[in-house]
UniProtKB/TrEMBL annotation:
Membrane association type: Single-pass membrane protein; Single-pass type II membrane protein
Molecular-function annotations in GO: S-adenosylmethionine-dependent methyltransferase activity
Similarity section: Belongs to the methyltransferase superfamily.
Cellular component, GO annotation: endosome; Golgi membrane; trans-Golgi network
EC top class named in words: transferase
Protein name: Methyltransferase
Keywords associated with the record: Glycoprotein, Membrane, Methyltransferase, Signal-anchor, Transferase, Transmembrane, Transmembrane helix
Transmembrane segments: 21-41
Broad class of where this protein is predominantly found: membrane
Entry EC number(s): 2.1.1.-
Pfam families membership: Methyltransf_29
GO biological process, one term: cell wall pectin metabolic process
Subcellular location: Endomembrane system; Membrane
Amino acid sequence: MGHLNLPASKRNPRQWRLLDIVTAAFFGIVLLFFILLFTPLGDSMAASGRQTLLLSTASDPRQRQRLVTLVEAGQHLQPIEYCPAEAVDHMPCEDPRRNSQLSREMNFYRERHCPLPEETPLCLIPPPSGYKIPVPWPESLHKIWHANMPYNKIADRKGHQGWMKREGEYFTFPGGGTMFPGGAGQYIEKLSQYVPLNGGTLRTALDMGCGVASFGGTLLSQGILALSFAPRDSHKSQIQFALERGVPAFVAMLGTRRLPFPAFSFDLVHCSRCLIPFTGYNATYFIEVDRLLRPGGYLVISGPPVQWPKQDKEWADLQAVARALCYELIAVDGNTVIWKKPVGDSCLATQNEFGLELCDESDPPSDAWYYKLKKCVTRPSSAKGEYALGTIAKWPERLTKVPSRAIVMKNGLDVFEADARRWARRVAYYRDSLNLKLKSPAVRNVMDMNAFFGGFAAALASDPVWVMNVIPARKPLTLDVIYDRGLIGVYHDWCEPFSTYPRTYDFIHVSGIESLIKRPGSSKSRCSLVDLMVEMDRILRPEGKVLIRDSPEVLDKVARMAHAVRWSSSIHDKEPESHGREKILVATKSLWKMPSNSH
């Protein structure tokens, strides 16, 4: 029997339903594809999915570890996801939401408190909306882009004191401060009547509670390198403003631990209304300042309690502590006091009203990584070598003269001189053969993650840059040599995030990256190279560069991970005069933007 060609209206209703369902499904898939690809809803749904995956890496350590393993193996083909938009200024170890639950005694809650890697999402910190490549040095000292840190609190509260002002697209910095509304220049001119700020006698300074670092920025013209610090506080971003201006700074709090510097590092310590209770807790904070101040160095305190209304007792106590430590009173000028620290072992009396005692000879004066504050006075004789002002060379001779604290190390003289030659040769190669424009106005804030004697920084001394020399806390503590050379730096453990805001360094240099995460004397890692590179990305500015020296095997791994953190990279031969198997990886961070619906 032949098939009948029935009209459409006479077809089986079941055939109709099946055909309709298939057709509708096909067109539905096509429509969904176009929605996802070309509409904001698609962006939003994709972003939501990415953020769900991202949060899962924080809440599920196993999921996070799987992602780390894939990135390490080069099998994670997509870049690591971006963090939520509200994380633009995230500092993992100075997170107010996390740290506000901690004790407020001695400001413990405002010190570093780092989450474990498995407690943090593995993601890349985004730039703020409207971010621009920073204003180059030296213009940046006087103005920065408002869009790069659109926080008006300081300008609104402190504008009348000359801290900073909003002017169109920029924040501008007239150079003022709470204790010097007429400008840091006038204030420094007043100090120079009492302190030898010219001529190279003073080189390293510590500015405590620095505001937007106009004091440190102005001192640069005197050849004095001031490292400014302040906590993450109600002003939100004072250290971030300082670094955007190109002034050396980092986030820290004088609380329950020593600051991360060796003993007798700073030629000048300055506090302008820093509100540190120097005489509280049996003068513990004054004692810490004394540990950091070089014998023969100067201590300047402006503001409360110096001749301040209703603070007679605090002012009397401050003078009493200085007398107990045999500090020479140079001047009291209005609300500013200037003391000079004695050279030689302290003349600390056995009996004094604060119960101060000298530390044991066995106390390590330069141990300062998570090291509890001591209630004893550090003996100058506890550190070997000559490092008092007057016994060390003036700047700039001090940069190249072998410091006494290097000579007392095993083979110190030979090691220092070989290191200086090596880095002069390497930096010349970076410039001439790798075409790294280290003298460019685009490069101002530089970090050396594994600095040893500061040879890399010394080779850049004639360039318009400053270098944060980082000494890994588990390696030989050579940071005192760096300060004796007139350079600056901090101790740090690279298995933890660094105490700075995102996007604060233009150029990051590291020699031996894998050694930063290895257990000393072992091939086992203490933490992940992926986490370290995500942290490097956090602190690197868009269009900033990274230079890594290590073995070919390590650099092959790093190159795979560079793709995951959205860097473009290339591997080069080392300079021909150097021995060993090292190669050099140079990477550039791109300026990427978050999709508009990723909040």
